[in-house]
Automatic annotation (TrEMBL), chains A, B:
Keywords for this protein: DNA-binding
Species assigned in the record: Streptomyces fumanus
Protein name: MerR family transcriptional regulator
Record-annotated HTH merR-type domain positions: 1-68
GO molecular function: DNA binding; DNA-binding transcription factor activity
Amino acid sequence: MRIGELARRTGVSERSLRYYEEQGLLAAERTPGGHREYPEAAVDRVVRIQELFAAGLCSSKIARLLPCMRDADGGPSAVATPKLVEDLAAERERIDRTIADLLRSRETLDEVIDAARGR
Amino acid sequence: MRIGELARRTGVSERSLRYYEEQGLLAAERTPGGHREYPEAAVDRVVRIQELFAAGLCSSKIARLLPCMRDADGGPSAVATPKLVEDLAAERERIDRTIADLLRSRETLDEVIDAARGR
DNA sequence: CTAGAACTTGACACTGATGTCAGTTTCAAG
DNA sequence: CTTGAAACTGACATCAGTGTCAAGTTCTAG
């Protein structure tokens, strides 16, 4: 499929999809005229990438991580190096802290909302 | 206490504390010479502010939210307007989606980490 | 009184993903 | 062919919190 369809199906802008390619996150074949041609699996991959961005990982870490993930179709094509594992473990902890923050903030919002809606 | 101590005790930079004041998030008395003087309660407040920032709220929303929160010492000094409640409910949903993203990403990281560490 | 630590304001830089615009080229249907 | 939709590259803008530096002022211990 081409970039417009991929954008539509994932809800990610074309701009971002090109950026992902630039960052080595998302490969694409090219038509003879130079247009990007994505395989079906790209949809899943883009969703994964978005999740990881939303989780606060930067593109370079995502780039190192992606080859080690088991894809929708088939096992991982690489195993994480010790260095990467260390990095990911740190990200994991950061994510845990973030979740804790979010839960506390959600609690705070709920209190204010409930108070305003009359308990 | 003064800004240096508050920064030390909260782990937030002096720069950020001044920014919070500029944004109307954190009031401070002034010494005759112009130095900021914070009450003890500022520590809790700064922690709350940081949590809300970490949860992805922007300073203007935090500014509107803060007066409606029950502080460490005493009840809220205001009740949220309907407009604010609507905003906060939207933020709440965004937070829920973010938490879901984080959980999925954490799962992904765990898979890669476990695979590298030999299952 | 004095030295040095701590504080003040103001300004500019950065980050990093994404938006947007311009000018050109390719694709696909009639 | 022609034509309009879709895609290409490249460049510059944005956002918002934070870092950092400079030049000057205040505070406090000795």
